[in-house]
Amino acid sequence: MVSDDTLIAIYGPMLSRRQFVASSAAAFQRPRRPNILFVLPDQLRAQALGCMGNTVVQTPNIDRLAGEGVTFRNTIANTPVCCPARAIFLTGQYCHKNGMVANDLRLRESSVTLPGLLKQHGYRTGFVGKWHLDGGPRLPGFVPPGPRRHGYDFWAANECSHEHFKNTYFRDTPQPLPVRGFEPEGWTDLALEFLETTKRDTRPFFLSVFMGPPHDPYGAPESYMRRYDNVPKPLNAYYAAITAIDDQIARLTRSLSDLGLAEDTIVLFSSDHGDMLGTHGAKLKRKPWEESIRVPGIFRYPRRIKPGRSEEALLSHVDYAPTLLSLCGVPVPATMQGADLSALVAGQSRRASDSAFLQIFGPYAGDQTPAGWRGLRTDRYKYARFEDKPWVLYDLKEDPSEEHNLAADPAAAKLRQSLESQLEAWMRRTGDAWKYNWTAPVEDAGRLYKDKTYYSVDEYLREHPQ
């Protein structure tokens, strides 16, 4: 082995002994763990972005973000409704495991979560925006410091309010504070406040920015609405809100660059579920169609992800937590059911899941969901069924707009049986069963949240027998 003295002699005056020893030690130090900025608009379907092929909506900054990283074109919401999707992000578990089988339940404080694990490994954690995991009355929306925040320390949020123009938020006291302007602008102000603290606290950070729009009631400031005067309602207002969000993406990414954080920050841009917006005669979410289950899935991480990649591989919500933990060098706990797709995200592997598992556990008259269902989405096929009968089967290659339901087609019987076997395997592997379904209209008329907090549908039904 060549000694330090010999190397210093070779390089002469370029390095002092102290400089050489310091540079050698630095070379063998563990690489700095990346920051994470997780941006999540509510109810944003994948089809409503320019980078996903939409030629009407204006999203230049999101498109630029996609061009600087990797876009997963088949990113799937396993349970396409607000609270269950958010619980999946945090726990890496399907809803029958994490308990969030309905909207407006409370996520159990004992849950092992992504922010909690990152905090244990030295991360600063921050949450800004719509939380929707605390259950109980949505308003005023204060979530106190402690275990109900599931590992987040910095806090500027509310439980759930769809008042996009005159919203309020809370920090660590029950005193409500006004959100400035249109909600995404105000949430971005607060996110930038958090990012500014990196000037004095150099620990890696995990910041989640969960915006309310484009969730209904659809709308945006007039300057954005005017851009879509020729688009029919309500799509015009939906697109206007997305363009307003796009401008906030520019502010966030500019701040990362100005602070020298861009190279070492994973930016994940996604959504909790899509929005039917009248397609197939349906509205809102909880459906198996692409407009409901398919969401944006964009990762930018300049240090490890080559720009301009487009991936057709399946990625689903349950994979987010294990993938992000792995990218940060944090061990993935055995409790998480999702796949660690960090090698796929980084372009180092082609290995991915061959299908995504879908679950809805009960009816909701408010968006015309008739009953709980299970399904799967492969690279080519979509299959969903109720407990007592098949519901939909589509060949997405031949019928990408899902106009020809093959569920009852005798010619598709063999295909249906094959997909049925795959679905049964998913249920066995994850521990799911039809017993987790509920049939009472517990989500309608605010029954689960208007009076008190519940951790399960069974708890509610014991107090309110049907």
From TrEMBL:
Keywords assigned: Calcium, Hydrolase, Metal-binding
UniProt key word Calcium: yes
InterPro entries the UniProt entry points to: Alkaline_phosphatase_core_sf, Sulfatase, Sulfatase_CS, Sulfatase_N
Source taxon at top rank: Bacteria
Pfam families: Sulfatase
Domain Sulfatase N-terminal: 34-330
GO MF terms held by the record: arylsulfatase activity; metal ion binding
Classification via SUPFAM superfamilies: Alkaline phosphatase-like (SSF53649)
PANTHER family (UniProt xref): ARYLSULFATASE FAMILY MEMBER, ENDO-4-O-SULFATASE
Family: Belongs to the sulfatase family.
Designated name of the protein: Sulfatase
Source species: Paludibaculum fermentans
Lineage of producing organism: Bacteria, Pseudomonadati, Acidobacteriota, Terriglobia, Bryobacterales
